Amino acid sequence: MLEVKYNKKDNTMFIWFSREPVFFAEQTKNVIVHFSKSGKPVLMEVLEATDFLKKASLVLPGKVKREIFA
């Protein structure tokens, strides 16, 4: 399962990897990863998503950029 949603009002992107319940979360800069009790990533929140995507696009290979931004 992979589901991505963007909240324009808050400029936040949510990426769900699983529907498992969240047990804990860890934040590094503008990214919060929520984990299940067994330590598997369940949800990733990207704060200030437009800035994150602009910076990420600078280092992505051309093939990946074309797939994402097509």
Secondary structure elements and their pairing?
Layout: E1 3-7, E2 12-16, E3 24-28, E4 31-35, E5 41-46, H1 49-59, H2 62-69
Antiparallel strand pairs: 1-2, 2-5, 3-4, 4-5
Main features:
alpha+beta; 27% helix; 2 helices; five-stranded antiparallel β-sheet; 70 residues; 5 strands
* Structural class designation: alpha+beta
Overall number of strands: 5
* Spatial strand arrangement across the major sheet: 1-2-5-4-3
Shape: globular
The helix-strand sequence is EEEEEHH
* Average pLDDT metric: 89
Rg over CA atoms, rounded to whole Å, is 13 Å
Weakly predicted, low-confidence segments: none
The N- and C-terminal alpha carbons lie at a distance of 22 Å
Largest sheet: 5 strands, antiparallel
- Our count of helices gives 2
Number of domains: 1
Instruction: Give the percentage of residues in beta strands.
Output: 35-45%
Proportion of helical residues: 25-40%
Describe the structure in brief.
The protein has helices spanning 49-59, 62-69; strands at residues 3-7, 12-16, 24-28, 31-35, 41-46. It has 70 residues and is α+β, with helices and mostly antiparallel strands. It has one domain (3-69).
Q: How would you describe the overall organization of this protein?
A:
There is one protein chain. By secondary structure, this protein is of the alpha+beta class. The protein has one domain. Helix content is 27%, strand content 37%. It has a five-stranded antiparallel beta sheet with strand order 1-2-5-4-3. Strand 4 (31-35) and strand 5 form a beta hairpin. The two termini are 22 Å apart. The mean pLDDT is 89.
